[in-house]
Design a protein that fits this description.
With 568 residues, this protein is an alpha/beta fold. It has 21 helices and 15 strands. The chain has a domain at 210-320. The two termini are 23 Å apart.
């Protein structure tokens, strides 16, 4: 198990500098009213990620600093390594926080910058702070239910996580079903239009994205067929009829061949004329084929025009181009399929919700059973603890009441009910418990769940409010027994509790040069007698010292053997 070793504070509140050594077992912190006990715990909170502001910094100082040294166990070392704060060898863990007068802060873990949230994550594995304010949390149903679940152990907490997850999944499934049903009317209306549009598009049966371009070209040919035919006929005549180009090129070739015997140049010219005549013949044949292909077909022209009109109508209504029309057609088809499939999807979602509801009911029932078992065990254990805390007749009951419906936390709520004396009816703890009773109930509950907690240290901040005398002695003895198995720090104003500590730290307020400061010092046995005497009567001499010595001896005798050994 990890162990808190040392807390160093500089310029926090009225504390110029204080160093608190955490011993094994029970460390008690005392001091006169206003001596800074709360500031000391505030420094611990800063190191572990509590909110920081400019009021944190001591007046006149530029910055406040806190450093917490911890001896980590293997589990903490592994968590640090996973988070990027690995330790070297057997090095201790050092958590630091610096707060500027402006209120800005910077944390470090092993010298590596760390955010406040990372410090808080670390604190969640190290320290439980139990304060007077914590006692008020006892009155909240959520606190009581969480207490039961933590006492129930890992299986109960796993069941609670399952219930929370299943409840969320069931809620999501029901929202999806409602959305499917609520949207049916709108979807059906859109689907009806989609069916009409799809029928209109499919009736035209667009071939491809370029069909309109091809049809326009064909319409132009058909519209100008007579003009095209006349021009092609003229071109054919110019190439083939008497005196036309083909015959003229043949005559030129013949004339040039007659001169070939006089020069190579004439032979080349004759060859060129022959080639031109061949090309002219080919051109004439091609023009003739085009001429013969020209059709004067008014019926086809009407059909092409009608087809173009149909395509243009679609383009105007569904996107401006045939590509857009075809894409819209696919969208309409998908929308129709979506609506046609809605009943199947609603049925599938309802089946999923039914399965989730059954699983949720089963897990919630299992969780409820474990909670009832844990509640009974808590009541029995707390009854014994309250007897040890000078409340022998007191009874605490964990009432589990069923909810109308299973919620994210399960199927029941919890309430702590209390009766301080025999014959008194059980009532909600908030209505019947005094401040001192609340403090002792809280301590009893903390003790009961102590062996089910993962954190290293328990810090009690003046939970001794409203008690004194024999009750205070009983509380001190119980804290000492608790410290036999865990590291405990207790800030107290009662001598009976302070006398039970294994380590005793006293805070002193001083005024030097007009500036108020606070110091912290670990006390020797002689110093402890003086401090306990002051706490008993305000007097540090004579009878008060004798009473203090007796109280310290009595506390030492009542401590568990291992605690007594630590205190020597």
């Amino acid at each position: 198990m990890s162990t808190l070793l040392r807390l160093t504070i500089e310029n926090v509140g009225l504390i110029a500098r204080a160093e608190l050594e955490f011993g094994a077992g029970l460390t008690v912190v005392t001091g006169e009213t206003g001596s800074g006990k709360t500031m000391l715990l505030g420094g611990l909170g800063l190191a572990l990620g509590d909110r920081a502001d400019s009021d944190t910094v001591r007046t006149g100082a530029e910055r406040a600093r806190v450093a917490l040294e911890i001896a980590p166990d293997a589990a903490l070392r592994a968590r640090l390594a996973d988070a990027g704060f690995a330790l070297d060898g057997d090095d201790d863990l050092i958590v630091q926080r610096e707060v500027l007068a402006s209120g800005r802060s910077q944390g470090r873990i092993n010298g590596v910058p760390a955010s406040a949230s990372q410090l808080r994550d670390l604190a969640g594995t190290l320290v439980d702070v139990v304060s007077q304010h914590e006692a008020q949390r006892l009155l909240a149903p959520a606190y009581a239910l969480d207490l039961v679940d933590r006492f129930g152990g890992a299986e109960t907490l796993a069941l609670r996580d399952d219930v929370h997850r299943l409840h969320g999944e069931l809620h999501t499934a029901r929202v999806r079903i409602a959305a499917l049903r609520d949207d049916d009317g709108r979807k059906i209306a859109r689907a009806e239009f989609a069916r009409f549009a799809l029928g209109e598009i499919d009736a035209v049966a667009v071939e491809d994205d370029e069909e309109d371009e091809r049809l326009r070209e064909r319409r132009d040919l058909l519209t100008n067929a007579e003009r095209i035919l006349a021009s092609l006929t003229t071109a054919t005549a110019a190439l083939e009829e008497d005196g036309a180009a083909v015959d003229a090129l043949g005559a030129a070739e013949t004339a040039l061949l007659g001169l070939a015997r006089y020069s190579e140049r004439f032979a080349e010219l004759a060859s060129s004329a022959a080639a031109l005549q061949s090309d002219a013949n080919e051109l004439a044949a091609r023009i003739a084929r085009e001429r013969d292909a020209v059709e004067l077909d008014p019926a086809e022209l009407d059909a092409v025009g009608a087809r173009l009109d149909a395509l243009d109508t679609l383009k105007k209504k569904y996107g401006g181009s045939l590509a857009a029309v075809r894409a819209q057609r696919d969208a309409f088809a998908a929308e129709i399929a979506d609506v046609d499939d809605r009943d199947a999807r609603i049925a599938a979602a309802e089946r999923e919700a039914e399965l989730l509801a059954v699983a949720l009911s089963e897990r919630a029932a299992a969780l409820g059973g474990r909670r009832r078992t844990a509640a009974d065990a808590i009541e029995e254990a707390v009854r014994a603890e309250l007897a040890a805390l000078a409340m022998p007749a007191a009874a605490l009951r964990v009432a589990l009441e069923p909810l109308d419906a299973i919620g994210p936390g399960g199927g029941e709520r919890a309430e702590l009910r209390f009766a301080a004396n025999p014959g008194e009816p059980e009532r909600a703890l908030a209505r019947v418990a005094s401040g001192g009773e609340l403090s002792r109930v809280l301590l009893a509950l903390v003790v009961v769940v102590a062996d089910r907690r993962d954190r290293t240290a328990l810090v009690f901040d003046e939970i001794d409010a409203g008690i004194g005398g024999a009750t205070a002695s009983a509380v001190g003895a119980r804290l000492a027994r608790l410290a036999a198995g865990a590291q405990v720090v207790c800030v107290t104003h009662l001598a009976q509790i302070a006398s039970c500590g294994d380590t005793h730290v006293a805070l002193r307020k001083h005024v030097r040069g007009g500036v108020t400061t606070i110091d912290a010092a670990a006390l020797t046995e002689d110093d402890r007698r003086v401090e306990v005497a002051r706490m008993l009567s305000g007097d540090e001499m004579g009878v008060a010292l004798e009473h203090a010595a007796e109280l310290l001896m009595s506390s030492a005798r009542s401590r568990p053997p291992d605690a007594a050994a630590r205190g020597r």
